[in-house]
């Protein structure tokens, strides 16, 4: 699991949401969402991260930090 997917997972967990919810609330394909979740898509496009940040109502800076998630 990549650092981005760990951070997204942590935010989803805090809000009691699922990756499927994220798929439903973004204009991102299901395969792309699940590739991000599984870490098989390590080079996520800026536009994709922007859509995820918007859906989660967080700043893109949340995903730039190199700080590990517990």
UniProtKB/TrEMBL annotation:
Pfam families assigned to the protein according to its UniProt record, in alphabetical order: HTH_26 (PF13443)
Write down the superkingdom of origin. Bacteria
Q: Which residues form a coiled coil?
A: none
UniProt domain HTH cro/C1-type: residue ranges: 26-63
Protein name as it appears in the record: XRE family transcriptional regulator
Organism taxonomic ancestry: Bacteria, Bacillati, Bacillota, Bacilli, Lactobacillales
């Amino acid at each position: 699991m990549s650092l981005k997917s760990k951070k997204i997972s942590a935010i989803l967990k805090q809000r009691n949401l699922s990756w499927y919810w994220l798929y439903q609330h973004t204009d991102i394909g299901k395969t792309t969402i699940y590739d991000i979740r599984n870490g098989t898509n390590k080079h996520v496009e800026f536009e994709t991260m922007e859509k995820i940040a918007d859906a989660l109502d967080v700043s893109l800076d949340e995903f730039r930090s190199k700080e590990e998630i517990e």
